Amino acid sequence: MQTMTIPRRFRGPPNSGNGGYVCGMLARQIAGAAEITLRAPPPLETELGVVEVGTGVCELRQGTATIAVGRAVTLDLSRLERATYAEAVEAAKRTPVKPHEHLLPMCFVCGPDRAPGDGLRLFAGPLLRQDSRGAFAVPWTPDASLAAADGLVAPEFVWSALDCPTGYVSQHDSETGNFNVLPILLGRLSVRIEGRPRPGERCVVTSWKTGCEGRRLIAEAALFGEEEKLLAVGRAIWIVVDRQVQLGKT
């Protein structure tokens, strides 16, 4: 049985792994596009088992408890929002989640208290173009520490970059412009990777809300490299939870 350990660097809530990173690590076991469903908070610094349970299906387990389930999927988006790097820079300045209001300030992907190079610091904000239809954008220049053996950014960090930007836009009402800072956790992330950026490459992540069903908030995202080349797309389902659940205290 293969194993996986989530280093503390890659946390989302204080004592559990960032959802996008964990999903991306499990997706390494699946060829092509994958859908990962998180069943429980992934513990940090703990040896977890990776078990193949069927063709194109695998589970992340802590003992007999299932932490996440991954499976191969076909992921096609009917909508794709683009933004230039300059537009993404301006959008990030309008991020609605201010540092003092951030519910998880040490999140690997979007935590404002993470140092540059340590965290991704992706603070997505609204695009103001008339045709943006409520989409958000954020610039991303991957750090050298995110490189895989082939010199490109490792796949799990592509997954990570598609994670929190969907969380940001999922809490935004494009019709009213209102934004609610809600305690949410990633429930499911599906990603298709067409290519991976180089460390130091100027990238853009766009995200847009596609719906909500009760406590479930649904959004999609795209990662673009230089010259606006499409590198990856994702679809996320976020779950509104109690604040204590978000912090892992229950």
Describe this structure in words.
- There is one protein chain.
- With 250 residues, this protein is α+β, with helices and mostly antiparallel strands.
- It folds into two domains: 71 residues, Thiol Ester Dehydrase, Chain A; 162 residues, Thiol Ester Dehydrase, Chain A (Roll).
- The chain has five helices and eleven strands; from the N terminus they run E-H-E-E-E-E-H-E-E-H-H-E-E-E-E-H.
- A hairpin with a 2-residue loop joins strand 3 and strand 4.
What are its keywords?
Thiol Ester Dehydrase, Chain A; 2 domains; 5 helices; 31% strand; globular; single chain; 250 residues
CATH superfamily of the largest domain: Hotdog Thioesterase
Shape: globular
Q: Into how many domains do the coordinates divide? A: 2
Note the gap between the termini.
30 Å
Helix-strand category:
alpha+beta
Q: Which CATH class of the largest domain is shown? A: Alpha Beta
Q: Report the helical percentage.
A: 10-25%
Total DSSP helices? 5
**Sheet with the most strands, sense and barrel status:** 11 strands, antiparallel
Write down the CATH topology of the largest domain: Thiol Ester Dehydrase, Chain A
CATH architecture of the largest domain: Roll
Biggest sheet strand line-up: 1-3-4-5-2-8-11-10-9-7-6
Let me know the average pLDDT: 95
Please indicate the percent range of residues in DSSP E strands (runs of 2 or more).
Answer: 25-35%
Task: Please provide the count of β strands.
Answer: 11
Report the radius of gyration as a whole number of Å: 17 Å
State the low-pLDDT regions, or none. none
SSE series: EHEEEEHEEHHEEEEH
